[in-house]
Write a structure and sequence with these properties.
This protein is of the alpha/beta class and 255 residues long. It has helices at 3-17, 22-29, 33-45, 63-85, 100-103, 106-109, 121-127, 154-158, 184-196, 234-242, and strands at residues 19-21, 49-52, 55-58, 93-96, 114-118, 133-136, 141-143, 148-150, 163-168, 172-174, 178-181, 197-203, 215-218, 225-228, 246-249. Helix 1 packs across helix 3 (33-45). The relative contact order is 0.11.
């Protein structure tokens, strides 16, 4: 990976997670700790990040620009959520993963009769007014960064559910490393959800391609449908075609 591209991806990764250890960055970007230290030093000198014990954190003076990027991505995430919701039918038992993209589905599900299993705190709160949405959650400890609940016992609970369709999120995806997440506990839950679901839909904005986090919770072969906001590289287009994965590019649906 070119140095400038890697530094930009490190910056985006730290902004997404707010605080990250050097060891995690070494694992995620597959470079030496000395290389990570040099890259981080550049970002620190630019004022983007600050060093903390054992790692690096967001310099909160730069958070406004990051939030602006999130707002700009909101239209793409909304289109992804709308496309995903079109696959949901009355009577379905679905899983909604934690994440800002999967959250966008609610606006397009609120009139349907559904059973929804989720650990997404924001989704639970926003679904409260809609009595036609039967919300099931497995509780646990609140992970504040992702606004989701997780516990060791959650995996046992999931094994008892028969899920028609799972709508999953990811920190990053790649053909070699699959669908990834930064939290080991959340990754274990996601893994069991994929195993228990008849159909698996992956919702990712176009920035997530060719990136990966600490844990792989499933391979791309496990996905039935990939929904994203912009056309991915030919490598991903060929992969989805060869493996019978439905590829939906929401940019094509803009009016």
């Amino acid at each position: 990976m070119l140095k400038n591209k890697r530094i930009k991806e490190i910056q985006d990764y730290v902004f997404e997670h707010e605080t990250v250890s050097l060891d995690e960055l070494v694992e995620v970007f597959n470079v030496s700790k000395n290389t990570i230290r040099r890259d981080i030093q550049e970002l620190v000198e630019e004022g983007e990040l600050k060093k903390v014990y054992g790692g690096v954190a967001v310099n909160h003076a730069t958070l406004v620009s990051f939030n602006d990027r999130q707002i700009r991505n909101k239209d793409e995430k909304m289109l992804i959520g709308k496309s995903a919701a079109e696959f949901v039918e009355d009577g379905d038992i679905i899983f909604i993963d934690s994440g800002t993209t999967t959250l966008e589905m609610l606006e397009f599900l609120k009139t349907k009769q559904l059973s929804i299993i989720t650990n997404n705190l924001d989704f639970i709160i926003k679904a409260l007014p809609y009595e036609n949405l039967h919300i099931i959650t497995f509780g646990g400890v609140l992970e504040r960064k992702t606004k989701s609940f997780a516990s060791i016992q959650s995996t046992d609970v999931i094994k008892s559910y028969n899920i028609n369709k799972a709508f999953m999120a990811s920190t990053g995806i790649s053909i070699s490393n699959g669908v990834t997440n930064s939290s080991p506990l959340e990754s274990e839950i996601k893994k069991h959800v994929v195993e228990r679901s008849a159909e698996v839909y992956l919702l990712v904005d176009h920035h997530k391609f060719d990136k990966y986090a600490l844990m792989t919770y499933c391979t791309l072969h496990d996905i039935d449908c990939l929904i994203t906001g912009a056309e991915p590289s030919k490598e991903y287009q060929n992969f989805t075609k060869e493996n019978n994965i439905k590829l939906i590019i929401t940019a094509e649906k803009k009016e």
